[in-house]
């Protein structure tokens, strides 16, 4: 089953919710799952009408493109692989269908939470860090983690995918559903399997209804980061705890399409 087609069909059958009704959850607990397209169908049946689907300008499925920044020796990747308590990820995220671009700095928070800080980035290239961007990164790292900004941050790779966002009508959580992931650097691209969906349950306390439903279905959370999976696959770096996900989720073909321009 093509998960992208299945998810588009699911989104078409769910009542819409506008962007103004989507909880921002800039500080939150994320739980991630990888499910088959058939499991996704069962999940939405179990959720019933508790969740609506984000709709913007008539669209319910959106294309995203993210460019990740790191040091030449991949400092942020190594910090995540080593599970450092104080760590971060830096990326630009471009909403190809909804419009707009943001520079986003994701910080590891207390008790496994994620704190996201961002600034509008519409007037800057997705693969570049402006002086304003570096000031933002420096100020945030110092104030939130008491870390100095690393030297020589530059673009390392990009990820492209399609997303459907399901929103708890109680306003306390949301579930992002990603399909068609392609990880690219300046040399090659690696796609995810077409029959799988990457789910991210986002809530203030990590106890969202969807997490309970998935546990009842026998689906357990996985340790996964798009950026870290992409580095491991594209740069042949040790995957450690991500290895089972890497083997299951990313295609074994190893190449797809044309590489992105990250120069």
Question: Can you describe what's shown?
Answer:
The protein is α+β, with helices and mostly antiparallel strands and 263 residues long. The protein has a single domain (3-249), classed as Hypothetical Protein Pfu-838710-001. 26% of the residues lie in helices and 33% in strands. The chain is built from seven helices and eleven strands. It has helices at 3-12, 37-47, 75-81, 131-145, 209-216, 226-235, 243-249; strands at 16-17, 27-36, 51-54, 62-70, 88-95, 101-108, 114-120, 154-168, 173-184, 189-191, 196-203. An eight-stranded antiparallel beta barrel has the order 2-7-6-5-4-8-9-11, surrounded by six helices. β8 and β9 form a beta hairpin. α1 runs parallel beside α2. The model is unreliable at 253-263 (pLDDT under 50).
Helix and strand arrangement:
Blueprint: H1 3-12, E1 16-17, E2 27-36, H2 37-47, E3 51-54, E4 62-70, H3 75-81, E5 88-95, E6 101-108, E7 114-120, H4 131-145, E8 154-168, E9 173-184, E10 189-191, E11 196-203, H5 209-216, H6 226-235, H7 243-249
Parallel strand pairs: 1-3
Antiparallel strand pairs: 2-7, 2-11, 3-8, 4-5, 4-8, 5-6, 6-7, 8-9, 9-10, 9-11
Helix pairs in contact: 1-2
């Amino acid at each position: 089953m093509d998960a992208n087609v299945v998810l588009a069909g699911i989104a078409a059958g769910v009542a819409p919710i506008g962007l103004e009704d989507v909880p921002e959850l800039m500080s939150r607990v994320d739980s991630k799952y990888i499910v088959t397209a058939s499991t996704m169908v069962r999940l939405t049946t179990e959720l019933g009408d508790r969740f609506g689907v984000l709709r913007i300008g008539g669209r319910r499925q959106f294309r995203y493109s993210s460019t990740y920044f790191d040091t030449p020796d991949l400092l942020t990747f190594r910090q995540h692989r080593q599970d450092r308590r104080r760590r971060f990820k830096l990326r630009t995220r471009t909403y190809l269908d909804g419009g707009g671009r943001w520079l986003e700095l994701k910080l590891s928070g207390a008790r496994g939470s994620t704190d996201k800080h961002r600034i509008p980035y519409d007037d800057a290239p997705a693969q570049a860090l402006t002086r304003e961007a570096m000031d933002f990164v420096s100020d945030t790292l110092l104030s939130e983690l008491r870390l100095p900004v690393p030297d020589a941050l530059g673009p390392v790779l990009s990820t492209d995918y399609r997303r459907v966002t399901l929103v708890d009508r109680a306003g306390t959580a949301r579930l992002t559903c990603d399909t068609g992931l392609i990880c690219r650097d300046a040399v090659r691209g690696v796609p995810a399997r077409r029959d799988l969906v990457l789910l991210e349950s986002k809530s203030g306390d990590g106890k969202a209804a969807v997490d309970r439903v998935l546990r009842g279905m026998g689906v357990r959370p996985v340790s996964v980061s798009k950026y870290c999976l992409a580095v491991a696959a594209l740069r042949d770096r040790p995957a450690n705890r991500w290895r089972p996900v890497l083997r299951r989720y990313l295609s074994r073909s190893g190449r797809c399409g044309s590489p992105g321009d990250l120069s």
